[in-house]
C-alpha cells in the first residue's frame, strides 16, 4: 500500500528526485520524516502547497494520503 510523492520544480532538486513512493496511510509528519533536512525545511514554508488526490489542501498538516494517492508538493509559481 503506497502513495506516489511528486516533488515539483526546484523541490525535486532539493529532494534529489522528482518522485518517491511512501507507505500509506501517510500524514504530514510522516512525509516530513521521509525527506532530508533541507527539503523538510522548505516544505514547511507557508508558500509551499500540497495536493493530494488532485485537490490542493487548505492546511497541509491535514494530509492523509491513502493507497494509490498522488501527493504533489507545489512550489510557489512565478511569472507574468
UniProtKB/TrEMBL annotation:
SUPFAM superfamilies for this protein: MoaD/ThiS
Transmembrane segments: none
Domain of life: Bacteria
InterPro entries: Beta-grasp_dom_sf, Mopterin_synth/thiamin_S_b, ThiS/MoaD-like
Record's protein name: MoaD/ThiS family protein
UniProt lineage: Bacteria, Pseudomonadati, Pseudomonadota, Alphaproteobacteria, Sphingomonadales
Amino acid at each position: 500500500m503506497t502513495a506516489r510523492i511528486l516533488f515539483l520544480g526546484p523541490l525535486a532538486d532539493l529532494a534529489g528526485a522528482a518522485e518517491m513512493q511512501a507507505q500509506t496511510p501517510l500524514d504530514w509528519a510522516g512525509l516530513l520524516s521521509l525527506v532530508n533536512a533541507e527539503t523538510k525545511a522548505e516544505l514547511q514554508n507557508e508558500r509551499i502547497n500540497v495536493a493530494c488526490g488532485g485537490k490542493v489542501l487548505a492546511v497541509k498538516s491535514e494530509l492523509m494520503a491513502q493507497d494509490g494517492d498522488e501527493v504533489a508538493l507545489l512550489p510557489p509559481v512565478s511569472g507574468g
